[in-house]
Design goal:
There is one protein chain. This protein has 441 residues and is mostly helical. The chain has a domain at 7-261. It is 46% helix and 6% strand. The chain is built from 16 helices and four strands. The protein has helices at 12-20, 24-35, 45-65, 68-100, 113-139, 232-261, 288-291, 295-300, 309-318, 326-331, 344-347, 353-357, 359-364, 386-396, 414-418, 425-440; strands at residues 151-157, 181-186, 201-203, 218-227. Helix 1 packs antiparallel against helix 3 and helix 2 packs antiparallel against helix 6. This is 1-phosphatidylinositol-3-phosphate 5-kinase FAB1.
């Protein structure tokens, strides 16, 4: 829900500054939400977090410069007005049908059968009609007018392998195909064709109301493009993470605006350095030229030994079987007859009597009967139940269930109660019945 903001108290420069930069507290919250979305193992979390943050900054910049909030709030007011008219019309139809004939069965929410049938028909044909209408209004030119128009937020994601026209400042985005990147192109919409998945539309398809199409509503938004994604599975995982991250980012922007209106103290850090194209790669391996020194550098930095070289030459002359020097060996023809190799008796050392005494001990090592006691079996942990798995999953995600900073959702009280070792279902049910009987009395 968009909070009420008095735009007259802010100038265009103040709006662009507020929406473009997030406070330090909000940036930390956004990074936590980003890190929790990468469930694919092959995704580089740190690199994609920086890349998506840059794309979200571009989205916020376009949002502030185009003053989208005014048009989006106007479109929301028109939707509420149309829904009220529709409810009044349905109520009149229901009263007329009730006065002329018997009343039909109602559901739990008080909706008649004719209304439910209408809703089922609308749901079955709504996606195709909405997509066709969105395609028509995107193709129509946006004629400027003095009065502000209603705006509909439409955010798309380019399919894997597709190319989207980029602005001049992002001209080097597609030069190196192996680098990671995410760009946002304002006022460019990539809508799916017939038979394609609707997941390429991140926002704007299900929120479109066909009853407000005659109110000259224009779309605002753009298209995200992911680069450096090796597989379709990773592209789908990143698209889900991007969709939720965009929602969190927009919520944080609106919440930050509300805090500023309430004169809350926020700390704004310096703008971080943008990630340039070609700086991040999917597999960042160190280059061979940087880590491998040259021959000259290796020889110049070779550590000097403290032992004189004459000692090594002395021991090499005294070694058995090596009576000839390297100078003599080079002059003699390389032949197995001319080179004196030591015999097996000379090389092999004489076995001591202790080896014979320890032979029995070595034989006992190969005995099938182990002298050591068998190892104790590891104790089995508590068996997992559906309640324990659910509680563990909620505890792991308690910090990311809300987009607000410092808001943590605790698990429902029933789950910790069910996990207590002294809990019995029969006693719990009997206690509920006793409470009901006491209230009835």
């Amino acid at each position: 829900m968009i909070p009420p903001v008095d735009e007259r108290t802010f100038s265009t420069q103040q709006w662009s500054t507020i929406n473009l930069f997030l406070s330090s507290q909000v940036q930390a919250r956004l990074r936590i939400s980003l890190d929790s979305q990468y469930k694919h193992r092959s995704i580089e979390k740190e690199e994609w977090t920086r890349v998506l943050e840059d794309a979200l900054d571009d989205l916020a910049s376009s949002m502030s410069q185009g003053r989208w909030l005014t048009g989006i709030k106007k479109y929301k007011a028109l939707k509420e007005k149309q829904s009220k008219k529709k409810r009044k019309l349905d109520k009149k139809v229901d009263l007329t049908a009730n006065s002329t004939g018997p009343r039909k069965s109602t559901g739990a929410d008080g909706i008649f059968d004719n209304g439910s049938k209408k809703s089922e028909i609308q749901i079955s044909s709504s996606n195709s009609e909405r997509l066709e209408r969105l395609r028509q209004i995107v193709a129509e030119p946006d004629v400027p007018s003095r009065t502000p128009k209603s705006r509909h937020l439409l955010l798309c994601l380019a399919p894997l392998g597709s190319r989207v026209a980029l602005p001049d400042e992002d001209s080097g985005f597609n030069l190196v195909p192996s680098t990671l990147g995410c760009s946002f192109r304002n006022s460019v919409f990539v809508l799916p064709e017939g038979g394609e998945e609707m997941d390429v539309i991140l926002y704007g398809l299900h929120e479109w109301n066909t009853s407000v199409e005659e109110m000259s509503t224009r779309p605002v938004g753009g298209t995200f493009t992911l680069k450096g994604v090796p597989s379709l599975q990773q592209h789908r995982a990143l698209s889900k993470a991007l969709k939720l991250t965009v929602y969190v980012h927009l919520s944080l922007l609106l919440e930050q605006q509300l805090l500023i209106d309430s004169h809350a103290h926020l700390t704004f850090a310096q703008p971080r350095v943008r990630v340039q194209a070609g700086t991040l790669q999917p597999s960042a391996l160190p280059s061979h030229n940087q880590n491998t020194p040259t021959n000259d550098a290796a020889s110049s930095h070779k550590p000097r030994s403290l032992i004189p070289s004459g000692i090594f030459s002395f021991f090499s002359k005294r070694s058995p079987g090596r009576t000839s020097s390297p100078r003599d060996a080079s002059s003699v023809r390389p032949s197995s007859d001319s080179v004196p190799f030591p015999s097996i008796e000379e090389v092999q050392p004489v076995r001591s009597s202790m080896d014979e005494m320890n032979s029995a001990a070595r034989l006992r090592m190969f005995s099938f009967l182990s002298s050591s006691a068998p190892e104790a079996e590891p104790q089995k942990g508590p068996t997992s139940t559906p309640f324990s798995d659910t509680l563990a999953r909620i505890e792991a995600q308690r910090n990311v269930l809300s987009s607000s900073t410092g808001v943590v959702f605790d698990p429902p009280m029933l789950l910790p109660t069910l996990m207590k070792p002294t809990f019995h279902v029969i006693d719990f049910v009997l206690r509920i019945f006793d409470d009901d009987d006491g209230e009835a009395v």
